[in-house]
Amino acid sequence: MVTRVAGAMTFRGRVGIWVSGTKLRDMDMEEFAEICREKKIEVIKINQTRPLSEQGSFQVLIHRLTEEMHNASTGDTRARRIIDDFQEYITSRPGMLVMDPLDSIKTLLDRGVTYSLIRRLQQGGTATDDGICIPNFVELKTSDPGEICNLMAQHGVTFPFVCKTKVAEANNSNEMMVIFGRRGLREVRPPCVAQSFINHNAVLHKVYVVGTRWVHSLRLSIKNFPQGEHDADTVFFHSHEVCKPNKNSPLSVLDDEEPPMPMPLCERWVHKVVHALQDALHVTLVGVDVIVENGTGRHYVIDVNALPSYDCVPEFSEWLADYLNSVMK
């Protein structure tokens, strides 16, 4: 291992951090850098205005280029240059660990592709009572109600369903709706994904993965609805307004006769899902959104996110530093 000397400290490796905005604040760079320093690991914040090739070599490169990747796919020339420079840099350094691979992030940026991956894991022999499950879904490329009904029938999607943007990193990716019947199909704006709504007592389990470790926290979610088609107005919501901590949305208030206690999360199931996703995607920093069906206790993955916000994970800096320490040995 190549060492570097900075003052009196001899570092045995460099870690580059390419993360912007709130995600960078969530990481608490100062704390993280200090913990890494104690392990003789130097943490460098990438200067995003300069080519990577001018910033030296790294043993590990941690990034969140989701916005740039999405913008590049829409024809943004600046974003395209950033992604091309990043790809050229990592290609020229095959021994460097990238957290996480661009191909994996590309998968997670597309909800349809991500859900299809989870469905393949489910159909690969793991769909037991405690196996990997995802609610029935279908990609919608049409706004024609008749075609949508046919597609729903083909893919087992039932009313009510949640309608989400296909792209997981678009400006409106957190804007969703619950559609209850054919009348609501006029609200569909393709391309999008329709996912059967599973009653889960308004509780969302947020699973945060850091290398080989994970932790989960409870968030409020959308309340229960009667199953089957009925003539109700479409419910529009922003997931951050409903599921973020310290939010009090009327959409999360259960009816009086409904049980207020959340169904427990099975740690063995989470362990299985996390390892399956890591094996399939080679990801280190990922978030998994899980719901537990009211009554049956069946667990469902409803979303997977690249480098989520770890602001509610106080162990994040220590866990990530430990993981880097283990891969640099």
From TrEMBL:
<comment type="subunit">
    <text>Monomer.</text>
</comment>
<keyword id="KW-0547">Nucleotide-binding</keyword>
<feature type="domain" description="Inositol-tetrakisphosphate 1-kinase N-terminal">
    <location>
        <begin position="14"/>
        <end position="105"/>
    </location>
</feature>
<dbReference type="GO" id="GO:0032957">
    <property type="term" value="P:inositol trisphosphate metabolic process"/>
</dbReference>
<keyword id="KW-0479">Metal-binding</keyword>
<keyword id="KW-0418">Kinase</keyword>
<feature type="binding site">
    <location>
        <position position="303"/>
    </location>
    <ligand>
        <name>Mg(2+) 1</name>
    </ligand>
</feature>
<dbReference type="Pfam" id="PF05770">
    <property type="entry name" value="Ins134_P3_kin"/>
</dbReference>
<dbReference type="GO" id="GO:0000287">
    <property type="term" value="F:magnesium ion binding"/>
</dbReference>
<dbReference type="InterPro" id="IPR041429">
    <property type="entry name" value="ITPK1_N"/>
</dbReference>
<comment type="similarity">
    <text>Belongs to the ITPK1 family.</text>
</comment>
<dbReference type="GO" id="GO:0005737">
    <property type="term" value="C:cytoplasm"/>
</dbReference>
<feature type="binding site">
    <location>
        <position position="305"/>
    </location>
    <ligand>
        <name>Mg(2+) 2</name>
    </ligand>
</feature>
<feature type="binding site">
    <location>
        <position position="111"/>
    </location>
    <ligand>
        <name>ATP</name>
    </ligand>
</feature>
<feature type="binding site">
    <location>
        <position position="206"/>
    </location>
    <ligand>
        <name>1D-myo-inositol 1,3,4-trisphosphate</name>
    </ligand>
</feature>
<dbReference type="InterPro" id="IPR008656">
    <property type="entry name" value="Inositol_tetrakis-P_1-kinase"/>
</dbReference>
<feature type="binding site">
    <location>
        <position position="221"/>
    </location>
    <ligand>
        <name>ATP</name>
    </ligand>
</feature>
<feature type="binding site">
    <location>
        <begin position="195"/>
        <end position="206"/>
    </location>
    <ligand>
        <name>ATP</name>
    </ligand>
</feature>
<protein>
    <recommendedName>
        <fullName>Inositol-tetrakisphosphate 1-kinase</fullName>
        <ecNumber>2.7.1.134</ecNumber>
    </recommendedName>
</protein>
<keyword id="KW-0460">Magnesium</keyword>
<dbReference type="GO" id="GO:0052725">
    <property type="term" value="F:inositol-1,3,4-trisphosphate 6-kinase activity"/>
</dbReference>
<dbReference type="GO" id="GO:0052726">
    <property type="term" value="F:inositol-1,3,4-trisphosphate 5-kinase activity"/>
</dbReference>
<dbReference type="InterPro" id="IPR040464">
    <property type="entry name" value="InsP(3)kin_ATP-grasp"/>
</dbReference>
<comment type="function">
    <text>Kinase that can phosphorylate various inositol polyphosphate such as Ins(3,4,5,6)P4 or Ins(1,3,4)P3.</text>
</comment>
<feature type="binding site">
    <location>
        <position position="309"/>
    </location>
    <ligand>
        <name>1D-myo-inositol 1,3,4-trisphosphate</name>
    </ligand>
</feature>
<dbReference type="Pfam" id="PF17927">
    <property type="entry name" value="Ins134_P3_kin_N"/>
</dbReference>
<dbReference type="GO" id="GO:0047325">
    <property type="term" value="F:inositol-3,4,5,6-tetrakisphosphate 1-kinase activity"/>
</dbReference>
<dbReference type="GO" id="GO:0005524">
    <property type="term" value="F:ATP binding"/>
</dbReference>
<keyword id="KW-0808">Transferase</keyword>
<feature type="domain" description="Inositol 1,3,4-trisphosphate 5/6-kinase ATP-grasp">
    <location>
        <begin position="128"/>
        <end position="325"/>
    </location>
</feature>
<keyword id="KW-0067">ATP-binding</keyword>
<feature type="binding site">
    <location>
        <position position="303"/>
    </location>
    <ligand>
        <name>Mg(2+) 2</name>
    </ligand>
</feature>
<feature type="binding site">
    <location>
        <position position="289"/>
    </location>
    <ligand>
        <name>Mg(2+) 1</name>
    </ligand>
</feature>
<feature type="binding site">
    <location>
        <position position="23"/>
    </location>
    <ligand>
        <name>1D-myo-inositol 1,3,4-trisphosphate</name>
    </ligand>
</feature>
<feature type="binding site">
    <location>
        <position position="164"/>
    </location>
    <ligand>
        <name>ATP</name>
    </ligand>
</feature>
<feature type="binding site">
    <location>
        <position position="305"/>
    </location>
    <ligand>
        <name>1D-myo-inositol 1,3,4-trisphosphate</name>
    </ligand>
</feature>
